[in-house]
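seq as requested:
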Amino acid sequence: MATPLTAVPGSDLLGVIMREHRDGLVSYAEKMLGDRGLAEDIAQEALIRAWRNIDRLLGMEGSVRGWLFTVTRHLVIDGVRKPHARREIVGDAYNDPVSGTDGAEAVHNRLVVRPLLRKLSAEHRAVLVHIYLCDRTIQETAGILGVPVGTVKSRQHNALRKLRAVMRPEAA
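struct tokens:
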């Protein structure tokens, strides 16, 4: 059972939070990411945020564990959305989430997104990766790919339409 934070001296707060919640946070992040090392980094960042927001945690009505798991989930989502900001990979200028073999990819990318994206042409796949997985605007994507904005919009529309048809053949 979790120790009430209000009963812990200030100098021991972080230690108590770490002892009681670290393993659960690492396990939770690892299930989503499939990478133990990255999961430990995410859990550490969640614990740092807890320390930075200790006043809020002490005064809130909800559970500290719930807050920590929510922060961990958000950190995982942020890491998946911005793979280029997540890690430096020596020798790679761009880590393509579709063809990459990086163990830090989210489980759902490996099991769901990647196989679907492989069914698209390279042009359609590039547009979706830039817009949805790299959080780029249509204008940024057009600049990177060297095509007009209208072409990016058209490829995005057609790629999404094809994905819908693949996912629900009866609707096509």
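Residues 88-94 have pLDDT under 50 and may be disordered.
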